[in-house]
């Protein structure tokens, strides 16, 4: 008899890939998500040629999963999802991933919604609860060593703050209600069907036709960039479940080996066929540039809010290019997980190839 899984946020980018993986592995899968029109109410669309999140309404039919619509902000709608189902694992992916969203909306969806589904899952004695968080709950790493899973919380935007609170709520349920919790913290995700975050870097490079490759000196101050291909993320989450005897109560970073930002930009420029120029800069000068870029991006965002629109690039995205986002993936590798794209450039090349085939870059 096949094992049974529930996937929340099943019609989103990552959720749809989780459904495909489980179907390929022969699982009995139940998918849940908001209906499309209800999802639209939480998101302010960008103008112009900037992609907006896509709702994959037909994905559950394509993979043969049962679909039960629910709204995690309304706990009463979750009980039908659990009735008459004995889940071996819940992959809780549903969250509002939007750097532009206001705090009250993030609190409602991510924190209250996380508590709602965690409580219902605990009531129904699910076998395992694998929760999606984000590396953004942690702060800059400094330059001595990468941030590990036990680094202190230091979120840098509203979305990441909501994910900290979400983790804390679920840890409470783990301790007080015996929710068999494991947490995965992905880096910025990319892969087929992706269009928010990493894709914006590709879009900007293609639009401007030029890539400034900043070489920071001393080289010991070179900033790092984290990312993960969606293939490695969903397989990593399944791996965490398959080893639940060791992973319950634990948190795992899921990302490729970090690479320098200068290496990343140079690789992307070559892959996209745009001109590049190496620009040497002292660490102090780059920090000043980072502060100016942050100020400018937040100013543009404020102006967009006043007009009832959103900018083409959310202000919080600049943080990843102006701070040392250096994280360790050693814990999950020590458990035995083997990344397909340990070198992020291999995964990014596959993704860029897909984008070219779709006419996206």
TrEMBL record:
Domain of life of the source: Archaea
SUPFAM superfamilies in alphabetical order? NAD(P)-binding Rossmann-fold domains
- Signal sequence segment: none
Q: Show where the NAD-dependent epimerase/dehydratase domain sits.
A: 5-253
Looking up Pfam families in the UniProt record yields: Epimerase
UniProt cross-references to InterPro entries, sorted A to Z = Epimerase_deHydtase (IPR001509), NAD(P)-bd_dom_sf (IPR036291)
Q: Which PANTHER family match?
A: DTDP-D-GLUCOSE 4,6-DEHYDRATASE-RELATED
Family affiliation: Belongs to the NAD(P)-dependent epimerase/dehydratase family.
Q: What is this protein called?
A: NAD(P)-dependent oxidoreductase
The opening ranks of the lineage are: Archaea, Methanobacteriati, Methanobacteriota, Stenosarchaea group, Halobacteria
